Amino acid sequence: MTTQVMLADETVSISEFRKKPQIYFTDHPIAVLSNNRTAGYIVGAEAFEAMLAIIQQSQQGETFPGRFQPSASRMRSITQKAESLLMTRSKKQLQTFTE
Predict the structure, then answer these.
(1) Residue 18 region, left (φ>0) first, then alpha (ψ -120 to 50), else beta?
(2) How many Cβ atoms are within 10 Å of 33's Cβ, its own excluded?
(3) How many domains does one find in the chain?
(4) What residues make up the domain containing 25?
(5) Could you write out the three-class secondary structure of 45-98?
(6) In whole angstroms, what is the distance from residue 47 CA to residue 45 CA?
């Protein structure tokens, strides 16, 4: 049995999509299935424009809100590594440290 990544919480068959496509252009992605496999994704104009804006910002080096949510164990690992790095730096190196 093969598995497939589904990048949407909602799905519609391609035959149902063809009957009334306008109802599927929403603010969230909808996967269009053909033979129970993802053929593509549908999003409304507002969601598509927002995605393009984020892509353009990232290409221009601009910042945008992120969703950094590491697990507790991953956060401990990150802080331990940071502590180790800071403790092994000279005073001169620490003078140039910025956050």
Answers:
(1) alpha
(2) 19
(3) 1
(4) 10-95
(5) HHHHHHHHHHHHHHHCCCCCCCCCCCCHHHHHHHHHHHHHHHHCCCHHHHHCCC
(6) 6
φ, ψ for residue 78, nearest 5 deg: -65, -45
Q: Is 2 part of any domain?
A: no
**Nearest CA to 37 among 73, 68, 2, 83?**
2
Query: Strand 37-42 relative to strand 30-34: parallel, antiparallel, unpaired?
Result: antiparallel
Portion of the chain with pLDDT greater than 70, in percent: 90
pLDDT level of residue 35 (50, 70, 90 thresholds): very high
Q: Is residue 80 in some structural domain?
A: yes
pTM over 0.70: no
